[in-house]
Amino acid sequence: NYVDVGTSGGVWGLERGYCLMIGGPDGAVQHLDPVFATLAPGADPGVPAPGKAAGTAPFGYLHCGPSGAGHFVKMVHNGIEYGVMAAYAEGMNILKSANAGKRQRTADAETSPLENPQYYQ
4-44+53-98: what CATH class? Predict the structure, then answer.
Protein backbone atom coordinates (compact mmCIF):
# COMPACT_ATOMS: atom_id res chain seq x y z
CA ASN A 1 0.00 0.00 0.00
CA TYR A 2 1.37 3.37 -1.03
CA VAL A 3 0.17 6.44 0.82
CA ASP A 4 1.17 9.98 -0.06
CA VAL A 5 0.56 13.05 2.05
CA GLY A 6 0.83 16.56 0.68
CA THR A 7 1.31 19.03 3.52
CA SER A 8 0.54 22.69 3.95
CA GLY A 9 1.12 25.01 6.85
CA GLY A 10 4.67 26.27 6.47
CA VAL A 11 6.57 27.23 9.59
CA TRP A 12 3.30 27.80 11.47
CA GLY A 13 2.37 24.16 10.98
CA LEU A 14 5.07 23.16 13.44
CA GLU A 15 3.09 24.79 16.26
CA ARG A 16 -0.50 24.68 15.02
CA GLY A 17 -0.43 21.46 12.99
CA TYR A 18 -0.20 20.76 9.28
CA CYS A 19 -3.04 20.57 6.80
CA LEU A 20 -2.75 17.15 5.23
CA MET A 21 -3.94 16.08 1.78
CA ILE A 22 -3.81 12.28 1.77
CA GLY A 23 -3.81 9.83 -1.11
CA GLY A 24 -3.94 6.06 -0.78
CA PRO A 25 -6.14 2.98 -0.39
CA ASP A 26 -9.03 3.37 2.07
CA GLY A 27 -7.77 0.67 4.44
CA ALA A 28 -4.24 2.05 4.65
CA VAL A 29 -5.49 5.60 5.23
CA GLN A 30 -7.89 4.42 7.95
CA HIS A 31 -5.07 2.46 9.60
CA LEU A 32 -2.90 5.61 9.68
CA ASP A 33 -5.73 7.89 10.83
CA PRO A 34 -4.26 8.32 14.36
CA VAL A 35 -1.01 9.59 12.81
CA PHE A 36 -2.86 12.09 10.62
CA ALA A 37 -5.01 13.25 13.55
CA THR A 38 -1.85 13.90 15.58
CA LEU A 39 -0.10 15.90 12.85
CA ALA A 40 -3.16 17.94 11.82
CA PRO A 41 -4.29 21.10 13.65
CA GLY A 42 -7.49 19.59 15.05
CA ALA A 43 -10.96 21.09 15.13
CA ASP A 44 -11.36 24.83 14.90
CA PRO A 45 -12.97 26.06 18.13
CA GLY A 46 -15.34 28.23 16.06
CA VAL A 47 -18.81 27.17 15.05
CA PRO A 48 -18.74 25.12 11.83
CA ALA A 49 -20.45 26.68 8.84
CA PRO A 50 -23.90 25.28 8.02
CA GLY A 51 -23.76 22.55 5.41
CA LYS A 52 -20.08 21.85 6.02
CA ALA A 53 -19.18 18.30 5.08
CA ALA A 54 -18.67 15.82 7.87
CA GLY A 55 -15.46 13.83 8.06
CA THR A 56 -11.89 14.78 8.82
CA ALA A 57 -11.68 18.01 6.75
CA PRO A 58 -12.73 20.25 9.69
CA PHE A 59 -9.83 18.71 11.63
CA GLY A 60 -7.25 19.68 9.01
CA TYR A 61 -6.79 16.50 6.99
CA LEU A 62 -8.60 14.92 4.08
CA HIS A 63 -8.41 11.61 2.21
CA CYS A 64 -8.39 12.90 -1.39
CA GLY A 65 -8.45 9.59 -3.27
CA PRO A 66 -6.06 6.85 -4.42
CA SER A 67 -2.27 6.96 -4.15
CA GLY A 68 -0.98 10.17 -5.70
CA ALA A 69 -4.18 12.14 -5.08
CA GLY A 70 -2.79 13.86 -1.99
CA HIS A 71 0.13 15.36 -3.87
CA PHE A 72 -2.10 16.18 -6.83
CA VAL A 73 -4.39 18.23 -4.56
CA LYS A 74 -1.31 19.89 -3.02
CA MET A 75 -0.06 20.73 -6.53
CA VAL A 76 -3.41 22.37 -7.37
CA HIS A 77 -3.24 24.29 -4.06
CA ASN A 78 0.26 25.52 -4.94
CA GLY A 79 -0.82 26.55 -8.43
CA ILE A 80 -3.62 28.68 -7.01
CA GLU A 81 -1.36 30.19 -4.35
CA TYR A 82 1.41 31.02 -6.82
CA GLY A 83 -1.12 32.53 -9.23
CA VAL A 84 -2.39 34.83 -6.48
CA MET A 85 1.17 35.82 -5.52
CA ALA A 86 1.97 36.59 -9.18
CA ALA A 87 -1.17 38.74 -9.45
CA TYR A 88 -0.15 40.69 -6.32
CA ALA A 89 3.35 41.19 -7.73
CA GLU A 90 2.01 42.43 -11.06
CA GLY A 91 -0.37 44.82 -9.31
CA MET A 92 2.39 46.18 -7.09
CA ASN A 93 4.65 46.64 -10.11
CA ILE A 94 1.91 48.52 -11.97
CA LEU A 95 1.44 50.83 -8.98
CA LYS A 96 5.18 51.39 -8.65
CA SER A 97 5.67 51.98 -12.38
CA ALA A 98 2.67 54.27 -12.68
CA ASN A 99 4.47 56.94 -10.68
CA ALA A 100 1.08 57.87 -9.24
CA GLY A 101 1.12 60.88 -6.96
CA LYS A 102 4.74 61.75 -7.68
CA ARG A 103 4.29 64.26 -10.49
CA GLN A 104 3.11 67.75 -9.78
CA ARG A 105 0.28 68.87 -11.99
CA THR A 106 -0.73 72.40 -12.74
CA ALA A 107 -4.19 71.39 -13.88
CA ASP A 108 -6.82 68.93 -12.81
CA ALA A 109 -10.43 68.18 -13.63
CA GLU A 110 -11.79 70.32 -10.79
CA THR A 111 -9.98 73.60 -11.42
CA SER A 112 -9.05 73.57 -15.11
CA PRO A 113 -11.25 75.68 -17.37
CA LEU A 114 -13.49 73.63 -19.63
CA GLU A 115 -12.98 73.70 -23.34
CA ASN A 116 -16.26 74.84 -24.94
CA PRO A 117 -18.06 75.54 -21.64
CA GLN A 118 -21.27 76.44 -23.49
CA TYR A 119 -21.80 72.72 -24.17
CA TYR A 120 -22.09 72.08 -20.43
CA GLN A 121 -24.67 74.74 -19.51
Answer: alpha beta
Stated length of the chain? 121
User: What are the catalytic residues?
Assistant: 74, 81
The C-alpha atoms of residue 79 and residue 91 are separated, in whole angstroms, by: 18
List of long-range contacts for 91-100, beta carbons under 8 Å, 24+ apart: none
Confidence (pLDDT) at 119: 75
Over range 78-88, report the average pLDDT. 95
What are the φ/ψ torsions at residue 99 (nearest 5 degrees)?
60, 30
Q: Are residues 62 and 22 in contact, defined by beta-carbon separation less than 8 angstroms?
A: yes
Per-residue model confidence (pLDDT) at position 52: 60
| Residue spans per domain, the chain | 4-44+53-98
What's the rounded Cα separation, in Å, for the pair 40 and 18? 5
List the Cα angle 29/35/25 in 5-degree steps. 10
- pLDDT for the residue numbered 17: 84
